[in-house]
Amino acid sequence: MKLSELFSKYNISLTSSQEDMFLKYFEFLVQENQKYNLTAITKKEEVFSKHFLDSALPISIFKNNASVIDVGSGAGFPAVPLKILKDSLSVTMVDSLNKRVNFLNQLCSLLNLKNICAIHARAEEFIKNNREQFDYAVARAVAPLNTLLEYLVPYLKVGGKCVIYKSQKLDEELKNAENAIKILNVKIEKILTYQIGDAERKILVMQKFASTNAKYPRGKNLPKLKPL
Question: What range defines the domain where residue 156 resides?
Answer without folding.
Answer: 61-225
